[in-house]
Structures are given as structure tokens and as C-alpha cells.
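User: Can you recover a sequence for this backbone? Please restate the input before giving your answer.

Assistant: Of course. Working from this structure:
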């Protein structure tokens, strides 16, 4: 495994920024990239100056999937450190879901396989109008196994099965239509609009954002009445907490 960093990491304007920096490999995700990304997310979560997170890809593509040779080595590894298995990427998805801070994917060009999975795992997906999304694993004899849990929640059963069973690639407009993408942005305005949107999110109450995200995903496992009850409790909790616009966020309760 190369010691060369796979990510560019920084904090500016209250935004923790992680940019996949493997343009020669279309920003494909290998073991080291996944480990570095998880560590960056953990650092952003712990940093009181970070109020939102932006994940991007350097060059023409967001991430054209997994480095298949590296993935095969990862799955065959007996090294238990950092997972030593497919969970090395699964832990990135889980970290995004468990963070109290919103995570935004800025997608241009190709987002395929693990790259599409990474975008799907994020809370918001901002897509340049040339973006392409696909889960082609079945064509290669693999399974988009971990992604399916998130994909079904995002686009529903029929669209999700179509994508994973056909392995086809869809454009940004179709991705937005089925709910895979939050917003499609013209290429000429993409960088500026992404910055404006993410800075706007980072300007909101960190307490309100933390409770909003925690409740939003907790509803996955609740019935209608239980969801309403959880909403009432969350509303009471957030009104009893300091309304912080910057500084150290008050983490939402886990459970």
C-alpha cells in the first residue's frame, strides 16, 4: 500500500472538506482511501469548528468506483486492523450516518460502484449536470451489497432493483427524478453553487441540525405513532438545549 495520501483535507468557513485525490485512477476507492476518509470524518465530527462536511473528487470524476484489484486484496486479507474486509468501506458509510453534522457530496463526472455508494451514503447529493451514477458490480460478478440498504431507502424498491440488477448508468437528471440526487446544478455554476449551499447549511444552528439528522434517520426503524412520539421528544430536547450558531455543537443523543 502506498504511503501517498489519497485525500486532500482542510477546514474553511466551518466546513470540513475531504477531496479524493486519485484523478489518475478516476478517484477509485481503495483500502487506504477508505481508511483515510473514515479518519477524516471522525476528526470533523470531533472538531467544534466544523459545522458541515463536504466530500468531493479531484479532476473530472467524483469517484469511478472501487479499485477492483485493491478491493480483491482487501477481501482476501487476514489483517484484522481497520476491518481487513469489506467493512473498511462500510465503516465510512456508517460514520456518515452516525455523525451529528450534515455530510454533502459534490458529484461531477462519474460516480460508479463504491463511488456511487459513497454519494448515496451522504445526507445531500449535489450533482453537476454531467454527473453519471451507476452500480455496475453485477456485471463484474460482484454485489453492491452494502449500498443496497441505503439505495432502497433513497429511491424505493423498483428503482433500486433496476439499478443494481441492470448495472446501468443514469444521468444526473434521471438520478434527481428518482431521488438519488438532491439537486442538479449547471456545470458553469457548479463550484459556486456548491459553496453557497454548503456554507448556508453550515450557518444553521448546530444543535438544531444535530437533532434533525438524528431524528431523520431514527425514523427508518419506527412505526408512524412511534415516529411522532420520537419527534415530540426531539422537539422538547432541542428547545431545552442551547441554540448554537457556530462553536462546539451539542451532539444529538444516540440510541
Amino acid at each position: 500500500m502506498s504511503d501517498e495520501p489519497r485525500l486532500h483535507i482542510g477546514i474553511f468557513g466551518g466546513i470540513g472538506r475531504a477531496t479524493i485525490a486519485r484523478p489518475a485512477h478516476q478517484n477509485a476507492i481503495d483500502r487506504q482511501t477508505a481508511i483515510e476518509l473514515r479518519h477524516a470524518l471522525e476528526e470533523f465530527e470531533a472538531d467544534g469548528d466544523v459545522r458541515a462536511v463536504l466530500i468531493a473528487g479531484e479532476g473530472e470524476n467524483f469517484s469511478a468506483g472501487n479499485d477492483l484489484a485493491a478491493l480483491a486484496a482487501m477481501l482476501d486479507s487476514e489483517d484484522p486492523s481497520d476491518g481487513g474486509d469489506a467493512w473498511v468501506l462500510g465503516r465510512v458509510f456508517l460514520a456518515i450516518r452516525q455523525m451529528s453534522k450534515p455530510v454533502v457530496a459534490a458529484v461531477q463526472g462519474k460516480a460508479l460502484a463504491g463511488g456511487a455508494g459513497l454519494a448515496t451514503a451522504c445526507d445531500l447529493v449535489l450533482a453537476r449536470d454531467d454527473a453519471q451514477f451507476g452500480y455496475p458490480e453485477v456485471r463484474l460478478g460482484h454485489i453492491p451489497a452494502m449500498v443496497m440498504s441505503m439505495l432502497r431507502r433513497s429511491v424505493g424498491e423498483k428503482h433500486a432493483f433496476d439499478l443494481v440488477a441492470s448495472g446501468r448508468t443514469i444521468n444526473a437528471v434521471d438520478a434527481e427524478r428518482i431521488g438519488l440526487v438532491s439537486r442538479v446544478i449547471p456545470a458553469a455554476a457548479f463550484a459556486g453553487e456548491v459553496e453557497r449551499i454548503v456554507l448556508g447549511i453550515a450557518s444553521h444552528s448546530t444543535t438544531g441540525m444535530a437533532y434533525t439528522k438524528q431524528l431523520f434517520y431514527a425514523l427508518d426503524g419506527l412505526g408512524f405513532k412511534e415516529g411522532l412520539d420520537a419527534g415530540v421528544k426531539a422537539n422538547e430536547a432541542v428547545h431545552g438545549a442551547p441554540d448554537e450558531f457556530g462553536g462546539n455543537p451539542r451532539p444529538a443523543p444516540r440510541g
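That completes the design. The CA atoms of residues 108 and 131 lie 5 Å apart.
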